[in-house]
Amino acid sequence: MKSAVETLNPTRVRLTVEVPFEELKPSLDAAYKKINQQVTVKGFRQGKIPARVIDQRFGRGAVLEEAVNDALPKFYTEAVNEAELNVLGQPEVDITELKDGETLNFTAEVDIRPALEIPDYSGIEVEVDAVEVSDEDVDKSVEQLRERFATTSPVERAAQDGDVLTVNLEAKVDGEVLEDGVAEGVTYTVGSGELLDGIDDAVKGLEAGGSATFTSELKGGSAQGKEAEVTVEVTEVKARELPELDDDFAQLASEFDTLEELKADSRKRLAQMKKYDQATQAQEKVLDELLKLVEVPMPEKLLADEIQTRKHNLEHHQLGQMGLDLAKYLEIQGKTEEEFDAETKQQAEKGIKTQFILDELVNKEKLNVSQEELTEHLMRRAQSSGMSPDQFAQAVVEGGQVPMLVGEVARGKALAVVVEAATVKDTNGEVVDLDDEDETAETVEAEGAETEAADEKPEA
């Protein structure tokens, strides 16, 4: 077999491959054997039909087509390996010549990872928010904890903000009660903004036994998106009572004996959260600066596929779970479809560039992923997915996604190397030391397009 490579652009090549016919013999034998098992010819036992009879009855062309389809992936892979190409996605194959008994010639166009030059990144400087915890931050945190320990008790008065109501709802569209438009015994907190637009104004001032009617756009159900006439009946009004902020509350809500100890712990926890946010911010800003330093040619087909994948995931997974379609989502976001497409393209480009650059850094810095690092990453991914580690690990293995996870960890380590080399200062002008952070933020997962390079099997 002979092969040659023609560079079409920095991200795409054309392979020209010439295969002597004798190298097709194993695939020809396999083709005759396969056809033998699939057809019957009178006078011959199945599987024992001579090749000449198959040629006469079914045509030599059918045998050659089967043999070529079987052999192409092997010859393509050999040509890719011989040229040491790092290919992306599936090739476009064109058989240029097939002479029975003489030769098989074909071309294969395929995207490749572009060659990148990573410049010195030690001069990167970024500014992040300072870690400052105010008394107001602590008070807000303690108040949120206090809200969790609130109690309710029935009252004989009109409903007001913060009250917890029990209500019955009935929705009509065009004067007809919807089959799924009736609900009884629904618990609702006045002012929470949940359920339906307009319900807060309707229930305020109502006592138990009172009712009101208002118009609202339905957020779900059979008439989702339509204007409905909604009748709400209040059956019970409960007032929320917050515990006193004292040492007794501290003992009730925590392991501390005094309110001051509880506040001190809240301050410590808030500082830790702000440090983590600061580390995440540093990574995001350093990554943005790194992307500016490196020129990355963009494979057009890979970009188109990534844009399509992102739009599909948004429409059929994320929005579907929220009961929205793309048109409604864009209306809520206040964006046109053109603006959405432009943003999606920008995000996809950034994701692909991030992966290419960090993968190049992994190679340049000779970074490896240990089993312990992979296990820790798997545990975090399992937690964010809502699955148990065992379930997530099984799904990863069965889906052949282990290399993807290894790539995520390696890219995270590569970004950490760049962050360590960069100068990070806070808004007070102080140099930030990120070495004491337990783990790096999962920036690569959030930004990176998981566009793993793979040698796909071509079809003739």
Automatic annotation (TrEMBL):
Biased composition range(s): Acidic residues: 432-453
Chief localization: cytoplasm
Recorded GO MF terms: peptidyl-prolyl cis-trans isomerase activity
Gene3D superfamilies: 3.10.50.40, Trigger factor ribosome-binding domain, Trigger factor, C-terminal domain
SUPFAM superfamilies found in the cross-reference section: FKBP-like, Triger factor/SurA peptide-binding domain-like, Trigger factor ribosome-binding domain
Domain PPIase FKBP-type: residue ranges: 162-209
EC number(s) given by UniProt: 5.2.1.8
Catalytic activities: [protein]-peptidylproline (omega=180) = [protein]-peptidylproline (omega=0)
Region annotation (Disordered) ranges: 429-460
Keywords for the protein's UniProt record, in alphabetical order: Cell cycle, Cell division, Chaperone, Cytoplasm, Isomerase, Rotamase
Record's subcellular location: Cytoplasm
Family of this protein: Belongs to the FKBP-type PPIase family. Tig subfamily.
Known function: Involved in protein export. Acts as a chaperone by maintaining the newly synthesized protein in an open conformation. Functions as a peptidyl-prolyl cis-trans isomerase.
Record remark: domains: Consists of 3 domains; the N-terminus binds the ribosome, the middle domain has PPIase activity, while the C-terminus has intrinsic chaperone activity on its own.
NCBIfam families: tig
Protein name per UniProt: Trigger factor
Species, as recorded: Streptomyces siderophoricus
Recorded name of the encoding gene: tig
